[in-house]
Amino acid sequence: MNPVPASPDPESGPPLRPATGRRRADAVPRLAIGCLDDVCPGSLLVAMPALTDPTFAGTVVYVLDHSDTGTLGVVLGRPSQVEIRDVLPGWSDLAVDPGVFHVGGPCETDTALCLATSSVAGPPDAVPGPDANVTDDDVERRAGLRRVAGNVHLVDLDADASDVADRIDGLRVFAGYAGWSPGQLAAEIAEGAWACVPGRAADVLSSAAGPDLWRQVMGRQNGRLAILSTAPADPSAN
Question: Does residue 190 contact residue 183 with C-beta atoms inside 8 Å?
Fold first, then answer.
């Protein structure tokens, strides 16, 4: 891990670059579930048995951004050995256990992305008068937060941790991210490499890792996906 990784500007969103969704192995039968229309910030991309690339086999990816310029997300449930306190000491007390960087994906692994959940209802410091039209999102942005979906926010790690401490329930820091260039993810979903399912705020800070998180997410689905939850998350484990 390099010295303090760069943090994306929460106002402009995380960096989005053509990157590295991975194609399935042609020898694996297709199981196409879901479609590109289901992909949105806050949804989950769940690796299907057709996806055998070790970078993404058995993974769950939380989608941060999706547009006609591409898709960006972070892999959940991949803790590293790098302690947050050794790199970003000001934020370590707000991180949930384990207090380590999680491997968010193969792109720009020296870049830190931070996600937090918040159950704070409404902007407590909003006042009438000139600020009467201040929205929750306005106040959150001033505190260094940018909403991704629901109660999940991107955190500006260049801000002061004390400014967000009272607004969040916990956070997790990711090293790197996963990205798809325009059209790439659509092709991979059509080939059966990914299923797109609704995400929950609790998924971001879940203590489940690797295969356990994969089974947890699959187990709450219906039909074929629920049946697959009993199979190995990583097909190479067969």
Answer: no
